[in-house]
Amino acid sequence: MSRTQDHNEGNMKVNLRRIMPSRQSSAGKKAMSVALVGATVVGASVLSVSPAAALSWKCKESSKTIDDAGYSGPWGDNWDFTVKNCVARSGSYVYAKAKVSWDAPPWYSGTDLSETFDAAYFRLYIKHADAGADSVLLKRDFDIKSKLAAMDGNGNGSWTSSTVKKKVGGKSAYADGALRLNWDEDGKDIVHYGFSASRSV
Q1: Could you tell me the superkingdom of the organism this chain comes from (predicted)?
Q2: Residue range(s) defining the domain that contains residue 35
């Protein structure tokens, strides 16, 4: 091998060493990447926590027995409903949610309730108490027919609404809720069944 060739190969090895990172440098970069990924995951988990989760909720629960107005047969047809209306406040925002529970005769279970209800809704309100009729600041209708049909074999079930919010400024407000049921073959449209409202916050 000539001296010139030997010299060129030596320069090539030196250049390769300059281009390729050392093992220690690679490990350092890997550690930094893991740290950055960890920071991103932690940040995302913190941001994913809903502000509503930390609220102090004030709730009012009430119950009502409702007759299936479209059925006149020999079997029992009364539904026992319990509604819990809840309200919370954070600064100028008021939040509301509700839980509906029911105990129906077991023979209603296992069907889609299409022969029981033409429609079934729960209406959630945020209201402000006035001297006359209370002001409705927000209302939201939830279609609960499929939720009612998801009862267990004993006719029992429950459903919780999503949380709604309204900017009310300095006003006080409370949560209210009602079932809006259109019984099949009763000759009527939707019937409104009110329940007890929460206190104001």
Answers
A1: Bacteria
A2: 3-47
Q: How many domains does the chain have?
A: 2
Of the candidates 87, 85, 80, the one whose C-alpha atom is nearest the C-alpha of residue 63 is 80
- Cα–Cα distance, 200 to 198 (Å, whole number): 7
Structure tokens, 11: 């320069």
The pLDDT tens digits for 11-41 are 443 343 333 333 344 444 334 443 433 333 3
Q: How far apart are CA 142 and CA 201, in angstroms?
A: 24
Q: pTM of the predicted model, to two decimals? A: 0.73
**Pure H helices in the chain:** 3-19, 23-47, 145-149
Give pLDDT tens digits for 66-114.
999 999 999 999 999 999 999 999 999 999 999 999 999 999 999 999 9
- Contact between residue 168 and residue 92 where contact means Cβ atoms under 8 Å apart: yes
Query: Considering only CA atoms, which of 174, 191, 151, 199 is closest in space to residue 64?
Result: 191
**Domain of 165: which CATH number?**
2.60.40
